[in-house]
């Protein structure tokens, strides 16, 4: 993630940018850790971290988010992915999938 940010900025990261990246990465890792523990409240709190700024989180979908994130983490483990933790992209895709199913149920 930090390497990608460095490439996007086309310069070396300064101290404050590195600190911000560390907070961002820690927030994403907190989601994976909470999912591994199966802690619905911790997952919800981690998803709501201001450092990762996820949109469209629905409180009534908390349990479904946890279940879908557990499945996503299991798939990564089963497929022996290079990064065994959930990435921000994994998390966003999972949230979007749950929200789409929820929207379909509302219609």
Automatic annotation (TrEMBL):
This is Ras GTPase-activating-like protein IQGAP1. It comes from the Eukaryota.
């Amino acid at each position: 993630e930090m390497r990608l940010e460095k490439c996007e900025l086309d310069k070396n990261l300064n101290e404050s940018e590195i600190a911000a990246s560390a907070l961002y990465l820690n927030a994403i890792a907190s989601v994976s850790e909470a999912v591994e523990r199966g802690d619905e409240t911790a997952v919800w709190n981690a998803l709501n971290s201001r450092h990762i700024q996820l949109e469209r989180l629905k409180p009534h979908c908390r349990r479904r988010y946890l279940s879908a994130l557990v499945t996503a983490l299991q798939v990564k483990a089963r497929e022996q992915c290079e990064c065994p933790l959930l990435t921000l992209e994994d998390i966003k895709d999972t949230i979007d999938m749950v929200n789409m199913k929820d929207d379909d149920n509302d219609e």
